[in-house]
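Hey, can you fold this?
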Amino acid sequence: MPNIELFGFSDPFDKEVRKRVIKALKGVVPEKDIVITEHNVKVTNVRGRLAPFIRLTTTPIPELNQAVEALKDIPFDLEVMLLQQFHSAKK
């Protein structure tokens, strides 16, 4: 299950980024598997300039490279973190 984390985006801009993420991943990753986490934090570089970014956290999935390429079209820094395991709460 890919978890797309949005760091440093403020409302209403975060809603636009969220829409772009969903649109970018449409047809790449099953929509039912996508989770979006919005972190309401201020992110800056060392000079105090705002530096919002997107993080994709997922287990290795066949669609990973395609998902990364789709998300790279959104003009913000992108981090990719691979999880070794994911255990769904659903039984």
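Oh, and this one too while you're at it.
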Amino acid sequence: MEGPPKKKRRGGHQQRLAQQKAEPESDGRCETSALCLLLLNLFAWGYFSPQRVQQIAEMAVKDIEKSKEDPRILEDLYTGKTWNQRKACQQYPC
């Protein structure tokens, strides 16, 4: 008994990879957020608990929703990315 005929591959490996990148994925998701990748990595290595990951993700979603009404709410994040330990300890004693 014969099954359905096998699909014949078209193009080389690099061409198929380029085509996959060009086509949107079937579930509609294009890229994963950088924050999501970081949270999953920290969870996978045991630095964060599942509850902590969920809490941070929930707060990020709330901030994004609030920023639609008032974009100034994200200014703290923009200034926070330039902090370093020395400046933070000067401003807020450790």
